[in-house]
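Researcher: Re-running this chain for the archive, since the previous output was lost when a drive failed. Same request as before.
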Amino acid sequence: MSVFEADTFFKGRIKVRQNQDGYRFSIDTVLLTSHIQPRPGEKVLDLGTGCGIIPITLACRNPGITIVGVEIQKELAALAEENVRGNHMEDRINILCMDMKSLTHDVISGPVDLIVSNPPYRKANSGRINPNNQRAVARHEIKITLNDIVGIARSMLRTAGRFITIYPAERMTDILTFMRNANLEPKLLCMIHSYKDTEAKLFIVEGVKGGRPGIKIVPPLVIYRDKNVYSDEVEEMFLF
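Model: Regenerated structure tokens:
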């Protein structure tokens, strides 16, 4: 039997229920959403929405946008819908329980302006597969591959639309190659370090459909200033 608990964020502005034993979003999601800056009136698509934390956070920060979240796992999709209702955002967020590989423009009423995804980091045949199915699907490319996600982003974005994601630094070559091959030109890159004197473990990349070559490397993000103490920049992300 699943056991759920509720967490509040941004000084109580939003409340999100999560499964104690299943998939739970991590600091990666907070870092990713802090770098997403939708423009007023834009339509956003979240590929692999989990409990709905990315759409809910974006809707809280950006009142003038609408968002579609897609989740293949039924229990997570139902939880995302519940979280959307609990935060009174039904008029701006639509959760779809479906395989994102089946997405078409007709399903979501046309192309979108911005696509975000916090995808599985590990290849299906690498490392230990978590015995919890929710966590396994979220962490390993069991239901979807990185190349699949990039291809879906290409097909669902309008021309000049943006794709933004967070990924392990060791797989940077994979995603940059996939993005360029899919005509999603990488335009912005932010390296993420656990501490200021450690190597980068993650990075955030933003690409533009049909964009011209040329990438901007922004200053790196450091998560912790001391053991288990967030940096000032990350602390601000939890405020709003």
